[in-house]
Amino acid sequence: MMGVARRHVVCAMSGGVDSAVAALLLRRRAGYDVTGVFMNNWDMVDEKGICQGNQDSEDAYKVCQMLNIPFRQVSYVKEYWNEVFSYLLNEYEVGRTPNPDIICNKYIKFNYFLHYAMDNLGADAIATGHYARTSLEDNEVFQQKYARRPPGLFRNRFEVRNTVKLLQGADHSKDQTFFLSQISQEALHKTIFPLGDLTKDFVKKIAAEHQLHHVLKKKESMGLCFVGKRDFSEFLLEYLEPRPGNFVSIEDGKVIGTHRGCFLYTFGQKAKLKDCRNAWFVVDKNIASGELFVAPCRDHPALYRDLLRTSRVHWIAEEPPAELVRDKMMECNFRFQHLMALAPCTLTLNQDGSVWLTLAKPMRDLTAGQFAVFYKGDECLGSGMILRLGPSVFTLQQGKKRESTAMNMPADEVTVQPTK
After folding, report:
1. Using H for helix, E for strand and C for coil, what is the string for 122-153?
2. pLDDT, tens digit, 9 for 90 and up, residues 194-245
3. Which residues form the tRNA-specific 2-thiouridylase MnmA-like C-terminal domain (predicted)?
4. Per-residue b/e over 172-185, b at no fewer than 16 CB within 10 Å?
């Protein structure tokens, strides 16, 4: 009697506890052959600072040794530079604040790594340590046919396919669907998330029980994807030329300090002012003039907005959702930062596939360059990059004050400005 065919799963290893436990859980499943792969995506030769890449690789190798599974390394230095890091620098130069981790997942982990695992290692599926789930059971993942899709802007709306939904992890406090909101159906069809139904505490317990102490004691990775934690302003200045400008008070237009470049600041960030006792916070930018507008408190109305426009939205399962196509509007929830509370909003579909997003109430720190990620219940619908912001509450208040002043002025005191 012939034995049941074994399934080959290639697990992305980061050198952290989550990917280690993901590989462990796969290794313990009957009929699975597991290979661990560490991705090297940053050229250490170019570094002036300290990067954890070498240590992470050693930790991942040690996990594979302990689990008695093959270990591989693959380099995507060029791909990371072209697809992720160049994008990051370009976004900062035009005044936006990018999210490279979302782009890294889209182009590196769930594109180049996926194809490497399938084409070079003969994988039946890939796996990562993300806290996320899909609508497929593991055995259904193995049944999905693997074929590279030709590059194109649109999916065929009439194509018959088994659409896979991306669902939040059971541990909502660790859910990572935010970072996966740009990945393709092709990737979701062939991906397993072993930690999707687990809590972080339980994952740590599993690691401790299996003596994976060298990864368990490591701190959570909080830095730029693959580059690590560092003084980010100084890191950027290694690649971008300083563009000095002024800090300007949003309230009275007075110059209160200078800075080395608008790209070093994002909305809501504390301004570095030498001669000010009180803290000031960045609320707006004028890239052309190099001015950073600041306000004297963290909750200033200049930081609150209720309207934004995205780039063309990447819809994960349904492109676009039928409700949005039918009604041109759709209510859902969104976030633009990982693990921030979901906020109710209304989407209005534009002809180019972008959306206008209107919030039920103004939100602080909405930032161009970040991704607006959309949810309905536990399902992550997809995301679009924030390209434009509506007027701030402060701007609207100032407009109302001017209107009120003009209405209360005697008619002979109202000055009409000549048109040019």
Report:
1. CCCEEECCCCEEECCCHHHHHHCCCCCCCCCC
2. 999 999 999 999 999 999 999 998 877 655 655 555 678 888 999 999 999 9
3. 306-386
4. eebbbbbbbbbbbb
CA dist 272 → 24, 223, 234, 278, 413 (Å) = 46, 21, 14, 11, 43
Rounded-to-integer distance, Cα 158 and Cα 166, Å = 21
| Token digits of residue 140 | 């259904």
- pTM, two decimals, is 0.89
Q: Is the dihedral of CA 185, 25, 178, 105 positive or negative?
A: negative
Task: Report whether 384 contacts 181 (CB < 8 A).
Answer: no
The answer for residues whose C-beta is within 8 angstroms of residue 310's C-beta and 6 or more apart is 354, 355, 357, 372, 384, 385, 386, 387
The model's pLDDT over 253-265, given as tens digits with 9 standing for 90+, comes to: 999 999 999 999 9
Q: Helical H runs in 198-292? A: 200-209, 213-216, 232-237
With CA atoms as reference, report the closest residue to 101 among 40, 36, 171, 178.
178
Helix 17-27 to helix 53-67 angle (10° resolution) is 20
Q: How far apart are CA 57 and CA 59, in angstroms?
A: 5
Encoding tokens for residue 194?
């072993």
Which residue in 225, 262, 332, 380 is the catalytic one?
Answer: 225
104 is catalytic: yes
Which one of the listed residues 11, 64, 104, 332 is annotated catalytic? 104
Q: In Å, how far are 21, 163, 350, 374 from 157, measured between CA atoms?
A: 38, 11, 17, 20
